[in-house]
Give the backbone structure.
Amino acid sequence: MKGLIATRFSDQKQVGGTSTETQLDACEKYCKSNGIEVIGYHKVEAESAKSSNVSRIAELVGFCRKYQGKAKVLVVFKVDRFARDVSQHYYLKTELIKMGIGLRSATEPIDDTPQGELMETILAGFAQFDNSVKRERVKLAMWARVEQGLYPWDPPYGYKPIKVDGVKLSPRVIDSNCSETIKYIFTRFSTGLISKADLSRDLRKRKVKNYKRKFINFSIQNIFNILNNRFYCGLLKTLEGKVIIGKHEALIPVSLYEKCQEVQKDQTRNINTKRMYNNPDFPLRRFVSCTFCSKPLTACWAKSAYGNRHPYYYCRNPKCIKYAKMIKKVEIENQFMDYLKAVKPTEIFIRKFKSRFIKRYEKRKGEIKGDYLNQLGEIQGWEKEEKWIIDSGMKGVLPDHIVKTRVDEIEKKITLAKMGLTEKHEEELDINALLAYAENFIQTIEMNWFDAPLALKMRLQRAVFPNGVIYEYPGYSNAKISPVFEIINTLATSEDKNVTYYSLRANTLVMNFIRLIRNLQLVFNTVPQFNYI
């Protein structure tokens, strides 16, 4: 009887155990002892038994087909050297049966008897189980590396692996061949003035290569993958979904990555952005009004004859002389930032305001302390009353329903009073930090607006201009400015000798300013909770 021998060697760790030489020796001994003449050998070197390895299966079937009608058996070292997936095992066996070739193992008792077929099924199942367990262990080991801040897979474009003696896995390093191109993608896309398709067309012309000296295909999908890969800002995501800081060097700041996510939001191919009420691309839409008809401007993405998309604002009133007059997004928003810079209080006004504000606050502190002590006394009185009611209920003096009702009422009073007490106490402790925050925020208000996501942009511009602004083609005007600016201007320009005016307004202005700036801090530090002016 003539036969074939197939061996598979997938890892250097198998040397001395189930190496190709060991497998071949065992198979030849089996053939010799069973009177099988070997007429062909099939060797597969350094290949893993992944369940999806179709090429390996096709090669084995092709090898056996060459000996169809000549060989009667295919001898393997073990069943798991034949296949490690039950479905693939029986697919291969079916193909062998069609060729008139049987399967034999040099180290396991399988044949065409019922007992042999049962043993073959069991061994094939164990082979799949063993392979699945190993695969799961490898996955867990790789994810463990991620938790250590390392990236065990092939690095994304802009990075390359580096070998360090004695270290199995080292942090990925920046690939100087294409890293600047990756930065360019994030920087350009963050402006909101260019699409992924535009970037794809631009970068394909450049023919950028990576560290392997291979051209990078900047398809729209690849650009999408790059923009959504937090690896570039130095972060990794664990198996549990926790975001951690990686050990590799960040290519871009986190703020730039987040800005690109904001631009991408609701910008997919299947969404019509014209239907969005609040479009992140157009923060000034419906906030800016036309000076000729007083109607709010709208905005859109317009497509050019070359297929490129460009953002514009325009008046949609057909009766207006500026109807459909397109204004570039970059122009109208840059003019708005210039207007913010123009209307904010000057440094001289801010210095005068701080000086006079602190004077008024020092006077106000006495009142705050008095209110604080009075309210503290009320709380202590309510706590004593609550204790007396509870004791009376326990003694049976008061019915349970009355005790419950009265205790609930007192608890509400105590809670509200303590909240007010905390506010008064904080007013005394945080005034210097609050003034410093206010000064810094106001002096850089136009940049704060530019860097803010859509929700904060809209709230901030509404806070500075409660009634919106009017576009003058070009330039802006408005009738009312922020209460914060009004307070600064009022205190900065008021004279100490105007006692009547100063006494009547100062306390109110001090408390209003504290409330308004606290709202700013709340908005820009904890975005979800916003309760503006």
